[in-house]
Specification:
The chain has 621 residues and is of the alpha/beta class. It is 56% helix and 15% strand. It is built from 24 helices and 16 strands. The strands form three sheets. Strands 8-9-11-12-13-14-15-16 form an eight-stranded mixed β-barrel, surrounded by four helices. The chain has a five-stranded mixed sheet with strand order 2-3-1-6-7, sandwiched between helices. α1 runs antiparallel to α3 and α1 crosses α6.
């Protein structure tokens, strides 16, 4: 049971007290009766529990255990006074009762009526034991009457104190609920409700005094990747740290709030706008530059940037001001992130177009508007085609053929990539099986997104695609970018191992652009490394690039992993890669992405179209 501090202060805590000092003529008999009660404390407990069971209203085991402790402590307190140990001793023994009741009230794990009922059951059980003990000891009715009066007085005080505890906690709960209704529970910052209220107040003052108001919409860049890689606990810790950083640079007259997720907002007015909202945005970006240290040992260092949208000027409502700032923030994202952009009216059209694009994307699969093209890959040892990579395209009825860079990021952002990715896998495997049946002994490579790799559905999707198409598992290669691979290492390694167990090959795409280390690579069941095009570009005039290529190829050899070069466009690039003993390659030097018919023509004509320059193997370096 979670322990919370009761709202009663230390000086307010009171232990149950008997009505008065023991009456001297009865002191000896009262002491014997108190000793008997103390000796039979477990009988009091048993009687109380029996009454509770009879009520058929049992609470959580941890709460019931607390009530048992209350029963034992209360019995000990009354017995202590009766046995002549003094009021202070009795009060000290009874203190445990108040700590536990305060705890129950603070935790809100037991309703008030149940606490009161259990107090009455304890009184009745203790009274039964006192009657029995008085009879056994031959104690007279007057002594028993004094003992019962002390028991009742203790109950009376207990009931009053229970009421005070619960009333105090009710007030505290009301205050807490009021706070939570207007504040973010994670960071303690004002939430959207309170921010909108404050903006309305600022706009009203602005209209009266002709003073400027600005909203700065702050959205962290790539927060989802950080969250997926380090876990949600670290993500929450980062959000708290970001909130503290931002709060440290905004003026007291400004308002900082969290709208949800990784979105924050700063509302500024009057003097703080004299230098312009852009300077406020620059201060916010500057505050985020130092790395954040996460974890109990502060060993995890994370760098984060933000895109900031600024809206200022006259606005009819708080919602309108935040909307414009939000639109500008998206423009900052599209312009490259880690920057601020001031809202302009023309941006509304851009956002409208983006919304329309998203709506069209949601219908594209159902309307059969997606299709695949295939870019051949070449074995650089004998210069023969050894596979193709499936690449998605979108043919919209009015937009024409939409290129991947224009819609794949939106698929990722909306989560549609999971459904579309499954379709790509099914279609590619079907086409790959058809080509192999037509005596084209080539493999099929399919890109898998981070969203697909986030769940075990990927394993089922791969298995079903192979089963439905009849494609041999060894002919399928699943490609994952290096950045995706590092998002959640443990789960990614497990899922890829299960995919590998199906007989499928695994390749790391865009290798060299992410953050993997040799130790990380060895944890994944990788068959091939696809060296990113940025390492290939300009090799003729880049000695450092040649060294990097040599290092990456040798890394693959040392790990018994095939190496694959992307983006080969020049003859000298091919010659260098073959000289370094790179296994396979792909690029415009060989072929651009082709439709099904053009791919078949390429495969049929490759041998006779291969030029001597391409086929000639350079001497090994």
């Amino acid at each position: 049971m979670t322990v919370k501090r009761s709202s009663l202060g230390k000086n307010e805590t009171r232990a149950p007290a008997p009505p008065l000092a023991p009456v001297e003529p009865f002191e000896g008999d009262l002491r014997r009766l108190g000793e008997a009660l103390n000796a039979r404390a477990k009988d009091v407990l048993a009687g109380t529990l029996a009454r509770t069971r009879a009520s058929k209203h049992v609470l959580d085991p941890a709460v019931e255990e607390s009530f048992e402790r209350i029963c034992m402590a209360s019995t000990a307190a009354v017995a202590s006074w009766m046995a002549g140990q003094g009021l202070e001793a009795a009060r000290e023994v009874g203190m445990e009762t108040w700590h536990i009741i305060g705890q129950l009230a603070a935790d809100r794990v037991a309703p008030l009526n149940e606490v009161l009922k259990r107090c009455l059951r304890w009184r009745d059980a203790a009274a039964d034991v006192l009657h029995e003990s008085a009879k056994e000891l031959g104690v007279g009715a007057e002594v028993l009457s004094v003992a019962l009066a002390a028991l009742q007085r203790t109950l009376d005080i207990t009931l009053i104190q229970v009421g005070e505890f619960f009333e105090s906690e009710r007030h505290r709960a009301d205050e807490q609920l009021a706070f939570l209704a207007t504040h973010d529970p994670l960071t303690g910052l004002p939430n959207r409700t309170l921010i909108l209220d404050r903006v309305e107040q600022m706009l009203a003052r602005s209209r009266r005094g002709q003073t400027p108001v600005a909203a700065l919409f702050v959205d962290l860049d790539n927060f989802k990747d950080i969250n997926d890689t380090l876990g949600h606990g670290a993500g929450d810790e980062l959000l708290q740290a970001v909130a503290a950083r931002l709060d440290g640079v905004v003026r007291a007259t400004d308002a900082l709030g969290r709208l949800g997720g990784d979105e924050f907002v700063v509302i500024s007015e009057e003097l703080s706008l004299e230098a312009g909202p852009e300077l406020i945005a620059e201060r916010l970006l500057e505050a985020l530059k130092p790395p954040f240290k996460l974890g109990g040992d502060n060993e995890t260092r994370v760098s984060v940037t933000a895109s900031i949208g600024i809206a200022a000027g006259e606005h009819s409502s708080a919602e309108e001001l935040l909307r414009d700032a939000d639109i500008a923030m998206y423009r900052a994202k599209w312009d490259g992130k880690n920057r601020h952009v001031v809202f302009e009216t023309v941006m509304q059209g851009m956002v409208q177009n983006r919304m329309e694009l998203e709506m069209d994307l949601r219908e594209a699969l159902e309307k059969d508007e997606f299709f695949l093209v295939y870019q051949p890959t070449i074995d650089l040892q004998d210069m023969s085609p050894n596979g193709v990579e499936a690449l998605i395209r979108w043919k919209h009825p009015t937009r024409g053929v939409v290129q991947p860079d224009d819609f794949i990021p939106l698929l990722e952002e909306t989560g549609l990539i999971t459904e579309i990715g499954k379709w790509v896998l099914e279609e590619a495997c079907r086409q790959g099986a058809a080509w192999r049946q037509a005596s084209y002994p080539i493999g099929m490579a399919v890109n898998v997104s981070g969203r697909q790799l986030d769940t075990d559905e990927l394993i089922v999707d791969v298995e079903e695609a192979l089963s439905h198409s009849g494609l041999e598992p060894a002919a399928l290669t699943i490609e994952i970018t290096e950045t995706t691979l590092m998002r959640n290492i443990e789960e990614t390694a497990r899922r890829l191992t299960e995919v590998k167990a199906l007989g499928v090959r695994i390749a790391i795409d865009d290798f060299g652009t992410g953050y993997s280390s040799l130790a990380h690579l060895q944890r994944f069941p990788v068959d091939a490394l696809k060296i990113d095009r940025s390492f290939i570009l300009g090799l003729e005039h880049n000695q450092e690039g040649e060294t990097l290529i040599r290092t990456l190829v040798q890394l693959g050899k040392s790990l018994s992993i095939e190496t694959f070069a992307e983006g080969i466009e020049q003859q000298h690039e091919l010659s260098l890669l073959r000289g370094e003993d790179c296994d396979s390659g792909q690029g415009f030097l060989f072929a651009r992405p082709l439709d099904v018919a053009a791919t078949e023509t390429f495969l049929q004509n490759w041998a006779e179209n291969t030029t001597p320059a391409l086929a000639q193997a350079p001497p090994r370096i």
